[in-house]
């Protein structure tokens, strides 16, 4: 768990207090965590793929593929016993 000292304005304080009452939360920390979880769906948290890596991926995708089939086919083809 990360601890932080934050400064919030009066409006944010009202909102946090409202969330505490509305969702039966004990502390403002819980209210902030609740808000973060709710906002998570609107914020993209995964990093974007760099353009040069995307080009590399497209080359791989267009490359020659070998269909192996089942695990048994793979073992026959590559000699695994």
List the main descriptive attributes of the protein structure presented here.
81 residues; 4 helices; 0% strand
Description:
The chain has 81 residues and is mostly helical. It has one domain. Helix content is 56%, strand content 0%. The chain has four helices and no strands. It has helices spanning 10-22, 28-39, 51-62, 71-78. α1 (10-22) packs across α2 (28-39). The chain starts with 9 loop residues before the first helix and ends with a helix.
Secondary structure: elements and pairs:
Elements: H1 10-22, H2 28-39, H3 51-62, H4 71-78
What's the total helix number? 4
Low-confidence residue ranges: none
Oligomer type: single chain
Estimated helix fraction: 55-70%
Q: Count structural domains.
A: 1
Cα-atom radius of gyration: 26 Å
Number of strands: 0
Task: Report strand %.
Answer: under 5%
Shape: elongated
Element string (H = helix, E = strand): HHHH
What is the distance, rounded to the nearest whole angstrom, between the alpha carbons of the first and last residues? 49 Å
Describe the sheet with the most strands: none
Structural class: mainly alpha
